[in-house]
């Protein structure tokens, strides 16, 4: 489960919801086969456990299709949907924004969806003024729709390893493209969902993380166990690839089955690195070894350099020094440094703990560059390798740093800057001249956001904690309680909801709407302290913060319960589901996207064990109690008057199983006494929250969600005939 943020919302006009939904077909009724579990003395009855059957049962697939058909028929019947979809598509085409930009020996590699295209393509450009060339075009491929998961150029820039996955599945297969000719080589490497970690010094091979093969009859939880790094030699069959780091590779390294084992090597470093990431745990383990020992993976003399208790979330090696980003004794993080091979206890502060939240570090040839946030605004600091002097880099946009990278053999960095009202551009910082310049990869959006402003306020939560709330609206806003408003939140993994630009928001803003973003506890807005304040036994703070922000918006006159919508997805589904349970009266309609709804059963899924560090385990009493307290599915009450809810899922979702949304939809449909619709939208060519989706899919999803909310808010153009 990861954060995902689409950018569309809805307009509201008061109407009678029961009348608005009168023409809607009855909700499909799911059979009930109660299963009873007892956890530490607490009895839980689950009537829809049968939906979790693997492989998916015909009854489950029939239930999904019946819901999907009902939802599709209703949304397509809304008179204003087609026009709205056209407007959203028009707005989406007002700017072309590149992502994942890598500057490599002066050559730029990047993804972008050109005007008129349906999927992001991989491009290459020689220098700032070079001619752009297409290297990989998924739209031109035959067979199932493909999406680029990642790309990594070789050290010499002559080849690129590209991961491609079908239908939002994220099940990537690596191919290798020759940069000069643009032609794909014959190499194909499967089960490579998690990317390429490095190329060898001679560019003859690359290292990649590979899932184990699943044996028939194994539990779903085995899917992501024992993920190791393998070496693939160009031109050889993948069957000959050899594991170089991971479980049972080297007796010097104890690798738990839930750890993802990543191997790193660079032509500019005399050291190897081995990193163990325990699922979604924020802090990892790092081993180092002399590069000269690379020959036999089983005999590499790995030495432990960083432990999880050191609370390190980022590390870079330059020369013989290791630089680390740590939350130990620094809840908003600090940067430390020590010699490779020394104990971390001997580290000295490079940037001490302070009020800024430090997000990441990048080692260039000239300096270490540190990305941080202050009052929600992105900052970059240059740390000289020679004297440790810190220099603040003036940035041309006061907003979010949404992309940032440096080359270890070149000075400077590239950075992507945007805000709620400023479309993103990529800039390059020249470490020699100390100048920041537009790369000209992209152009500003032609959409005029000049009449739109973003207010940053702090809302008192019920325990007195001040929760940041971003409110995006037109300058002529009136606080009369009549404004249609959509409130979004996520609140997990220490991931922050930062200012971001989306031209499609104008489809709502130009109709007088308000977008509000609640920076609830569980995210990373104030570093690790904010994360922990919404984790484990504190998880209840996440959804109560959201409820308190909703209440504040209504009391301040921004909106009213008849005109307030809620939106969140994935782990944000915990917040949506519990807000529906705890305070259904606050919301007219809720978008619950690819949601985690049944927390007690996460652990049984393929992605479940990896998420135990964030959410806990039912195998111990404290874990069960924390999970149960935030498990929306188990707190649905028969006869409660729930708001209108549209749950969404992608049938190929590898992160949150589709039955999570299906069980929640079935339970809500049976329980609600409000007369408001409970819909389940299924994307049969989609995955997790838009990951791997085409432009057409994204526009269709946005149009469906906005139309659903407009329908429930009573807009006369969006009522069923």
Describe the secondary-structure layout.
Blueprint: H1 17-20, E1 35-39, E2 42-46, H2 58-77, H3 81-92, E3 99-104, E4 107-112, E5 121-126, E6 132-136, E7 146-153, E8 159-166, E9 173-178, E10 184-189, E11 196-199, E12 205-210, E13 228-233, E14 242-245, E15 259-264, E16 271-278, E17 285-290, E18 303-306, E19 312-318, E20 321-326, E21 334-339, E22 348-351, E23 357-363, E24 367-374, E25 377-384, E26 390-392, E27 400-405, E28 413-418, E29 425-430, E30 435-438, E31 452-460, E32 466-474, E33 485-488, H4 506-509, E34 514-518, H5 528-532, H6 540-555, E35 564-569, H7 572-582, E36 589-593, H8 608-615, H9 621-629, E37 644-650, H10 659-671, E38 678-683, H11 695-713
Parallel strand pairs: 33-34, 33-35, 35-36, 36-37, 37-38
Antiparallel strand pairs: 1-2, 3-4, 4-5, 5-6, 7-8, 8-9, 9-10, 11-12, 12-13, 13-14, 15-16, 16-17, 17-18, 19-20, 20-21, 21-22, 23-24, 24-25, 25-26, 27-28, 28-29, 29-30, 31-32, 32-34
Short structural description:
The chain is an alpha+beta fold. The model is unreliable at 1-22 (pLDDT under 50).
Describe it for me?
It contains eleven helices and 38 strands. The protein is of the alpha+beta class. It has an eight-stranded mixed sheet, sandwiched between helices. Strands 3-4-5-6 form a four-stranded antiparallel sheet, with no helix packed on it. Strands 7-8-9-10 form a four-stranded antiparallel sheet, with no helix packed on it.
């Amino acid at each position: 489960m990861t954060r995902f943020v689409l950018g569309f919302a809805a307009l509201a006009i008061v109407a009678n919801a029961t009348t608005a939904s009168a023409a809607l077909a009855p909700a499909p009724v799911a059979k009930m086969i109660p299963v009873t579990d007892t956890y530490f003395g607490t009895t839980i009855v689950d009537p829809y456990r049968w939906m979790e059957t693997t492989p998916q049962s015909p009854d489950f697939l029939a239930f999904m299709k019946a819901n999907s058909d009902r939802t599709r028929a209703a949304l397509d019947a809304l008179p204003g949907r087609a026009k709205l979809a056209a407007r959203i598509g028009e707005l989406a085409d007002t700017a072309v924004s590149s992502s994942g930009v890598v500057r490599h020996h002066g050559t730029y590699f990047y993804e972008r969806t050109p005007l008129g295209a349906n999927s992001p393509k991989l491009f290459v450009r020689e220098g700032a003024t070079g001619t752009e060339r297409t290297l990989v075009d998924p739209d031109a491929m035959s067979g199932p729709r493909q999406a680029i998961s990642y790309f990594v150029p070789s050290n010499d820039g002559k080849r690129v390893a590209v991961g491609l996955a079908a239908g939002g599945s994220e099940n990537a297969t690596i191919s290798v493209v020759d940069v000069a000719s643009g032609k794909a080589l014959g190499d194909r490497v499967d089960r490579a969902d998690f990317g390429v970690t490095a190329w060898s010094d001679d560019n003859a091979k690359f290292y990649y993380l590979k899932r184990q093969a699943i044996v028939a009859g194994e539990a779903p939880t085995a899917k992501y166990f024992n993920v190791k790094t393998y070496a693939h030699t160009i031109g050889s069959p993948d069957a000959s690839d050899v594991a170089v780091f991971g479980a049972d590779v080297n007796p010097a390294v104890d690798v738990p089955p839930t750890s993802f084992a990543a191997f790193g090597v660079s032509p500019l470093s005399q050291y190897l690195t081995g990193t163990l990431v325990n699922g979604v745990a924020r802090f990892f383990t790092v081993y180092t070894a002399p590069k000269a020992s690379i020959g036999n993976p089983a005999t590499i003399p790995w030495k432990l350099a960083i432990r999880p208790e050191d609370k390190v979330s980022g590390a870079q090696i330059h020369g013989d020094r290791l630089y680390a980003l740590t939350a130990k004794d620094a809840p908003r993080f600090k940067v430390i440094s020590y010699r490779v091979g020394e104990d971390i206890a001997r580290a000295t502060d490079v940037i001490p703990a302070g009020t800024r939240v430090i997000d990441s570090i990048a080692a260039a040839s000239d300096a270490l560059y540190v990305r941080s946030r202050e009052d929600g605004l992105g900052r970059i600091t240059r740390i000289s390798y020679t004297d440790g002097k810190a220099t603040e880099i003036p940035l041309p946009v006061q907003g979010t740093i949404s992309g940032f990278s440096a080359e270890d053999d070149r000075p400077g960095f590239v950075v992507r800057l945007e805000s709620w009202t400023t479309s993103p551009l990529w800039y390059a910082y020249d470490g020699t001249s100390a100048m920041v310049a537009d790369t000209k990869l992209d152009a500003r959006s032609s959409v005029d956001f000049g009449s739109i402003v973003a207010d940053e306020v702090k809302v008192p939560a019920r325990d007195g904690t001040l929760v940041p709330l971003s409110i995006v609206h037109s300058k002529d806003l009136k606080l009369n309680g009549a404004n249609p408003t959509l409130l979004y939140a996520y609140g997990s993994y220490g991931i922050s909801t930062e200012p971001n630009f989306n031209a499609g928001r104008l489809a709502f803003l130009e109709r007088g709407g308000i977008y509000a973003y609640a920076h609830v506890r569980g995210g990373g807005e104030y570093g690790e302290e904010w994360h922990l304040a919404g984790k484990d036994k504190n998880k209840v703070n996440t959804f109560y913060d959201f409820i308190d922000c909703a209440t504040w918006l209504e009391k301040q006159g921004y909106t009213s319960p008849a005109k307030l919508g809620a939106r969140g997805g994935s782990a944000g589904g915990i917040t949506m589901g519990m807000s529906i349970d705890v305070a259904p009266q606050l919301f007219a309609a809720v978008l619950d996207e690819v949601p985690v709804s049944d927390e007690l059963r996460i652990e049984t899924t393929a992605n479940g064990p990896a998420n135990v560090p964030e959410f806990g385990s039912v195998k111990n009493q404290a874990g069960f109690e924390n999970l149960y307290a935030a498990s929306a599915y188990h707190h649905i009450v028969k006869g409660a008057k729930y708001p209108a809810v549209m749950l969404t899922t992608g049938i190929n979702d590898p992160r949150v199983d589709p039955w999570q949304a299906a069980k929640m939809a079935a339970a809500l449909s049976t329980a609600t006494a409000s007369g408001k619709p409970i819909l389940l939208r299924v994307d049969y060519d989609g995955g997790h929250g838009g990951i791997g989706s085409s432009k057409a899919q994204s526009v269709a999803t946005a149009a469906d969600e906005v139309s659903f909310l407009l329908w429930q808010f009573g807009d006369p153009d969006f009522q069923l005939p």
